[in-house]
Amino acid sequence: MPLEIAGRKEWGAVPPKAVTKRAPSDLAGVAIHWFGKPRAAAAHDGCAALLRGVQTTHMAPGGLGAKEGANDIGYNHAVCPHGVAFDLRGFGVQTGANGDARSNRDYAAVVYMAGKGDSLTDPGARVLAELIRMWQAKGAGPLVKPHHFFVRTECPGTELTKWIELQPSPWLRSTPRVVLENETPPWFTDFVHWRLVQGGAPKLRPKSVPKRIPTSTWEALALTERLTDLVGPQQSFLDWVEWRQQGGGRATRPRTFPAKIPKAWVVSLERLEQSFAGEPVEPVTRRKPSEVSPGTTPAKTVVSANTTLLAQPRSTRKALERYMLARKHGVYDDGEVRNIIALYWSASKDAGLDPLLVVSQMVLETGNLTSRWSQPPRRNPAGIGVTGAPGVGISFASWDDAVTAHVGRLLAYAVPKGKESSAAQRRLIDAALKVRPLPDNRRGRAETLEGLAGSWAMDLAYTGKIVRIANEVKAAS
């Protein structure tokens, strides 16, 4: 009989914050996890509560390494030692549990609901095997890997790892016949390039690659990927470079980094920086906001996640104009763009904010004034009130009103309530928050750019995108 899977309502799941679709046919296989902590429920009537507790932990701030918490419990499915399968994220949804972007994209995640000291029961093993077969029947690749194949962890423990490595594999209904001529297929290079370089996008699948891929080819792909990671440039190295350029905040340090950063990474980053056109980029060092005094930032200092919002201009008005005018800017003519920048320049300086950072945020939010919400009659410069629902958002009658609302709102993020330095700052914030209120717990959340990620926008890469634009403006000045 087909395996019955207990639904989300049966174990009391709360709705996900967001869902990323990922078809089983786009996957290389399944990753196997365990809880480690907590231990298995002593009786089956405790399994639902165990899942609810794990979901709460994953979705809380910091869960699965996300500042605002994960979108949902991390796994696709769970299997308890009593032989019951549970629907978590389910089929067709990308996992968040495997440890890095690539493994989350390429593998489903199934968790055995046990921890250290708990055994793999016969009912649990049978259901695990059947669940793997279901993923493969829906199109997932044949690879089954322990979680520690992707990141530094002991998950899923010794016993489960040995079960995964059994030959023949427990989830195979019969021993596969080895076809020697398929061990090194002529289309293998095309297949590897498609999966590793092009991300396995269905529209880019090479015509030479057959519909059914032999298990040996999937295994060779997995080993190629691991070798690529070892000799670089590996994903964790690229993540480290991006993290460094964004300021290297401890709270945002990805879990995929090794405990001690290899010296080769540091040397490679220095060589990469010196290879870019123009002057070599200075290494980014983490400084406390109090160490950066307004008006003292050197002209050539790189903007980073730790750059303070309250500061004298780090660029020139002309540099901002050159940057924006050199790119498509929607329906606005050059004169209108200059006028918008002039409004931002004046309002930002009056507020004590660095116009470079304010305009860089506007460029990001509006696609350099090309987004639908930035066009007349909306003139919304920073997604204020825009939720993604059709028509939901705030429109402004003029760019004077729009700039006041944007600059005042950003100032509210930079200054805690009651800590305004002048009556002018208080009036500007009051005017902006009449347009759209801001909870008191978000006041002062962004003394530096780093504070905007996860607060102004839920995108944890939000700060890095503003940093990139600001440094592009500086490089062109």
Name of the CATH architecture of the largest domain: Orthogonal Bundle
**Strand line-up of the largest beta sheet:** 1-4-3-5-2-6
How does the major sheet shape up? 6 strands, mixed
Q: Helical percent range?
A: 25-40%
Mean pLDDT: 83
CATH top level assignment of the largest domain: Mainly Alpha
> How is the CATH topology of the largest domain named?
Lysozyme
Molecular structure report:
The chain has helices spanning 8-11, 47-59, 101-106, 122-137, 158-165, 188-197, 215-231, 235-245, 263-275, 317-325, 334-351, 355-366, 399-414, 423-435, 462-476; strands at 5-6, 29-36, 77-79, 85-87, 107-115, 143-146. It has 3 domains: 5-173, Peptidoglycan recognition protein-like (Lysozyme-like, 3-Layer(aba) Sandwich), CATH 3.40.80; 235-275, no CATH class; 305-476, Lysozyme (Orthogonal Bundle), CATH 1.10.530.10. The N and C termini lie far apart (69 Å). 38% of the residues lie in helices and 6% in strands. The model is unreliable at 175-182 and 275-300 (pLDDT under 50). Helix 10 runs antiparallel to helix 11, helix 11 packs across helix 12 (355-366) and helix 11 packs parallel to helix 13. It is built from 15 helices and 6 strands. By secondary structure, it is α/β, with parallel strands linked by helices. A 6-stranded mixed sheet has the order 1-4-3-5-2-6, sandwiched between helices.
